[in-house]
Design a protein that fits this description.
Chain A: Residues 102-303 form the ABC transmembrane type-1 domain. Chain A: InterPro entries: BPD_transp_1_N, MetI-like, MetI-like_sf. Chain A: Its main location: membrane. The complex is a heterodimer of chains A (345) and B (534). Chain A has helices spanning 3-33, 38-44, 52-61, 68-80, 94-129, 132-148, 151-165, 177-207, 210-217, 222-259, 265-274, 278-306. Chain A is flat. The model of chain A is unreliable at 313-345 (pLDDT under 50). Chain A has 345 residues and is mainly α. Chain B is α/β, with parallel strands linked by helices and 534 residues long. Among the domains of chain B are: 3-106 and 178-261, 3-Layer(aba) Sandwich (Rossmann fold), CATH 3.40.50.300; 271-361 and 441-525, Rossmann fold (3-Layer(aba) Sandwich). Chain B is built from 20 helices and 20 strands. Chain B has helices at residues 3-11, 56-64, 89-92, 117-127, 133-142, 148-153, 161-173, 191-208, 219-225, 243-248, 253-261, 322-329, 352-359, 379-389, 395-408, 425-437, 455-472, 483-489, 507-512, 517-525, and strands at residues 16-27, 30-41, 45-49, 71-79, 82-83, 100-103, 179-183, 211-216, 228-233, 236-242, 278-293, 296-308, 311-315, 337-342, 345-346, 362-365, 443-447, 475-480, 492-497, 500-506. In chain B, the strands form four sheets. A six-stranded mixed sheet of chain B has the order 6-7-8-3-9-10, with helices on both faces. A six-stranded mixed sheet of chain B has the order 16-17-18-13-19-20, with helices on both faces. A four-stranded antiparallel sheet of chain B has the order 2-1-4-5, with helices on one face. In chain B, helix 7 (161-173) runs parallel beside helix 8, helix 8 crosses helix 20 and helix 14 (379-389) runs parallel beside helix 16 (425-437). The longest helix of chain B has 18 residues, at 191-208. Classes of the chains: A mainly alpha (345), B alpha/beta (534). Chain A binds chain B through residues 208-211, 213-221, 228-229, 232-233, 236, 307-309, 311, 314-316, 333-335, 337-338, 340-345, and chain B through 61, 64, 66, 68, 93-98, 100-102, 104-106, 108-115, 120, 123-124, 127-128, 146, 155, 157, 160-163, 165-166, 168, 171, 188-190, 193, 196-197, 293-296, 317-319, 323.
Chain lengths: 345, 534
């Protein structure tokens, strides 16, 4: 592994840490400027019957009487050591609450991602090798169609058709295999649109490249051209897109879990919002930021290893990002002509 | 391939390999090739010559059946007794590679960038029925690659253009095709590499008895390498026949003009336009300038002096340090050591603001007019930009100077409201020249100003540059890899090699009796037209 890559990797990791901390601070500030303090609201609720002294002592216990920046500092230092606090509603540690629901959401998100990839690559292959009428017209419209239909509509349609009309799965048994599959389809379809868009554009671009024509001129057939030549360069940028869709998967999970009656991060968020359970909300937002940043970090670190063209050069390019990966991105093409060296031939 | 096809192929051995009759190609409603006919005999070579848009590449792609989906070809392309255009895909595919080989224009884009050269070579060898690593390494050695094993394990971007073109030629000849279609096989390469690649093609053609269909814009190359020529313009054949006949006594006006515009064939064409420079005063003085990037010494102890009204050419291959030298001259990079003065003022060690004053006297015309002009700006704004930047005169005066500059480069003032996309390549480069003229600089740096243009367009630009020099006493620093053009245009020349100036002096002296072996190699690489006429 080159020195250039190590410097790049170190820089990305540090950036990622900063982003996570900033996200935490930002959430803290947003929550603290919101009108209505849920703790005092609860305490002052006449039904709970706390006396003024008790209230003061509890508030002091939680440190809520101190200036916001002190609270922020304490909250931040607890977060750094992995301490997420205690739920205001249930009195249980937030990490326990999240730990209970996280696996279910992860299963859903990963299945949705699998669905999205299968669908996207099927569409990508189809746009090139189905007969032109279907491939070009109909399939190319799919990504825009998928993007324009909200995933709750897809979810409701799936439930209506497959659960109620065909009885393929039971809505009550939300965690069953088939139920998970259909939830994953609802969540995965919009994500597949993003992947397919990039994939189709890249396939078109790669198919127009001179090397594709040269490979054909040697007698290579269409299928092998797709599998051996077009697929890899076209799917490299998909790594970036997948990382960017993590946000969509997490956000979509909230709605999808509600519709399909699953317990997961989504249902936890929903409950915490309605009950103003701020420690839980703060922790979930921080968790989402961590997941998003980590996945994108991994994508950034893996990409240069997958694409042989990304180079970490000499002193000149140390300051730059490795060649490619603009958003939605295409890897860097050939070097500019001025850069090419003709030493031996 | 069915056995009877083999038989047909084998029977047609001595006669014509490729016979194109009445070929017309259109993209949608636009017909780009009209009624083209020619034939190529076994073991011979034929060159299709023409400028961009002449349809020469389209013809090549029709023969290979590699036209884009929108392309429609009519007529007959008879290859060894079979009509290529009407064969079903299944029957044509076995001909691809095995009987008809293809060498593309730009080798750096002709291999899959994310797969190793070796894996693609093995794939090609498998299609040719010989999927062995040894066979591929042999083929690489045959085309003169020094280290076949390293090439085998490399990715395309790790090899130079010349090496890649050798790889591609090696893979093309591996199945022993009867015909090779080479589409501008050397136009993306440096001159010395260009010569070696063309020599290699000629050599293989003789050794392996392969016919060659050479597509080129360069009449000198065509004349040197082909037995017969077909001259195309706008998709129509202007003239065709034996090379010596077409070359020495062109019958059509277009072929004659093409001949006159090729710099290699007319070294003294612009003699009457050339001015005598004023040697007493050095406009530009570069002394002992060195610039390194990491371990690479891009410019190594370079010194040169250019007099007022002189055209000084910097020649050398890619990576020789030409571009870095002019970037230093323009103050875009700072030298590690040495000094540069322009019109008596030091360029090095200045602050940014200070440098602006110098830059006013020092303008750049960039290589590629298709990328150097902002497509959203009008011609008037493009040309007038530096006037606005330096707040020269009133608005009316500036508009007047823009018109003046356009007039000086031979463009109509009506063009001020147009955008670059509405202009041709030649017009765009004239706009770029007008843009550099408008501040009335002393020195213009011309970075390969015509390399993206056709020869006839290039001739027009050269005339503009020379008459501007005569009129305004401009000093040019002219960067080029085209030695023939340098011979026509420049007074003095510096030959650069690996960051150093290896030889310099008056153009005629340096080119007619080069002292250094490197200069000699460069000069000898210039195609001189028909063999024996040099």
């Amino acid at each position: 592994m080159s020195r250039g890559y190590k410097i790049y990797a170190l820089r990305r990791v540090l950036q990622a840490l900063v982003v996570i901390l900033l996200a935490y601070v930002f959430t803290f500030i947003v929550i603290s400027v919101l009108p209505g303090d849920p703790v005092t609201n609860t305490l002052r609720n006449p039904q709970n019957g706390f006396t003024e002294e008790e209230i003061t002592s509890i508030v002091a216990y939680y440190g809520l009487d101190r200036p916001v920046y002190v609270q922020l500092w304490e909250s931040l230092s607890r977060f750094v050591t992995g301490e997420l606090g205690v739920s205001l509603r249930s009195g249980r540690p937030v990490s326990d609450l999240i730990g209970e629901v996280l696996p279910s959401t992860i299963v859903l998100a990963l299945s949705a991602l699998a669905v999205a990839l299968v669908l996207a690559f099927a569409i990508g292959f189809g746009t090139r090798y189905l007969p032109r009428r279907y491939g070009q017209g109909v399939l190319r419209a799919f990504p825009s169609l998928f993007l324009s239909v909200p995933n709750y509509v897809i979810g409701l349609l799936l439930i209506n058709v497959f659960a109620f009309q065909l009885g393929a799965f039971r809505v009550i048994d939300a965690e069953g295999g088939l139920a998970t599959l259909f939830a994953a389809i609802a969540l995965g379809i919009p994500v597949s649109a993003r992947v397919a868009e990039v994939l189709i554009a890249n396939l078109d671009h790669e198919a127009d490249q001179e090397y594709a024509a040269v490979a054909r001129s040697r007698g290579l057939g269409q299928t092998r051209l797709f599998l051996r030549h077009l697929l890899k360069p076209s799917s490299l940028p998909v790594v970036t897109v997948i990382a960017l869709t993590v946000g969509e998967l997490l956000g979509g999970a909230v709605i999808t879990e509600k519709i399909f009656g699953r317990t997961g991060i989504g249902s936890l968020v929903e409950r915490s919002v309605t009950t103003q359970d701020l420690p839980v909300l703060q922790a979930v937002v921080a968790l989402a930021a961590v997941i998003f940043v980590v996945v994108n970090l991994v994508a950034d670190l893996v990409y240069p290893l997958l694409d042989p063209r990304v180079r970490f050069g000499d002193g000149r390019s140390d300051d730059r990002k490795p060649g490619g990966r603009p958003p939605g991105g295409r890897p860097p093409g050939g070097r500019p002509p001025g850069d090419r060296k003709e030493v031996t031939a | 391939m069915a056995p009877q096809d083999r038989l047909t192929l084998d029977r047609v051995t001595t006669a014509t390999v490729l016979n194109v009759t009445g070929l017309s190609v259109s993209y949608g409603p636009h017909q780009v090739v009209s009624d083209v006919s020619f034939s190529l005999r076994r073991g011979e070579s034929l060159a299709l010559i023409g400028e961009s848009g002449s349809g020469k590449s389209t013809i090549a792609r029709s023969v290979l059946r590699l036209l884009p989906r929108s392309g429609r070809a009519e007529g007959v392309v008879d290859f060894a007794g079979q009509d290529v255009l009407s064969l079903p895909e299944k029957r044509f595919r076995p001909l691809r590679g095995r009987s008809i080989g293809f060498v593309p224009q730009d080798p750096s884009h002709a291999l899959n960038p994310v797969r190793t050269v070796g894996s693609q070579a093995l794939e090609a060898a498998a299609l040719a029925g010989e999927p062995s690593r040894e066979r591929v390494l042999d083929a690489f050695a045959q085309v003169g690659l020094d280290d076949p094993r390293r090439v085998f394990g490399s990715y395309p971007h790790q090899l130079s253009g010349g090496m890649l073109q050798r790889v591609l030629i090696g893979l093309t000849v591996l199945p022993r095709p009867r015909l090779i279609v080479a589409d501008e096989p050397t136009s993306a390469l440096d001159v010395t590499i260009q010569k070696r690649i063309l020599d290699l093609l000629s050599q293989l053609r003789q050794d392996l008895d392969i016919s060659l269909l050479l597509i080129t814009h360069d009449l000198a190359i065509a004349a040197e390498r082909a037995d017969s020529l077909v001259v195309l313009k706008d998709g129509v054949v202007q003239e065709s026949g034996d090379t010596a006949a077409v070359f020495t006594a062109p019958a059509s006006a277009y072929a004659e003009r093409l001949h006159a515009d090729v710099p290699a064939l007319n070294p003294d064409r612009y003699e009457h336009l050339r001015t005598v420079p004023d040697e007493s005063e050095a406009k530009i003085r570069v002394s002992g300038v060195t610039k390194s990037f990491g371990d690479l010494k891009a410019v190594d102890d370079v010194s040169l002096a250019v007099g007022a009204g002189e055209t000084h050419a910097l020649v050398g291959e890619s990576g020789s340090g030409k571009t870095t030298t002019i970037r230093l001259l323009l103050g875009l990079e700072a030298p590690d050591s040495g000094s540069i003065t322009v019109a008596g003022e030091e360029v090095t060690g200045r602050t940014h603001r200070d440098l602006r004053a110098v830059r006013r006297h020092l303008q750049l015309v960039y290589q590629n007019p298709f990328t150097s002009l902002d497509p959203t700006w009008t011609v008037g704004r493009l040309v007038g930009e530096s006037l606005d930047r330096y707040r020269v005169g009133t608005r009316a005066e500036r508009a007047g100077r823009v018109r003046e500059a356009l007039d000086a480069v031979g463009l109509s003032p009506d063009l001020v409201s147009r955008r670059p996309s509405a202009l041709s390549g030649g017009q765009r480069q004239r706009v770029a020249i007008a843009r550099s003229l408008v501040l009335r600089p002393d020195v213009i740096v011309l970075d390969e100003p015509t390399s993206a243009l056709d020869v006839t367009v290039q001739a027009g630009i050269v005339e503009v540059l020379l008459s501007l020099q005569a009129e305004l006493g401009l000093t040019y620093v002219f960067v080029s890899h085209d030695l023939a053009l340098v011979r026509q245009l420049a007074h003095t020349v510096s030959v650069m090699h690996r960051g150093r100036i290896v030889e310099s002096g008056p153009v005629k002296t340096v080119f007619d009796s080069p002292r250094e072996p490197y200069t000699r190699a460069l000069v000898e690489s210039v195609p001189a037209g028909v063999k024996g006429l040099r």
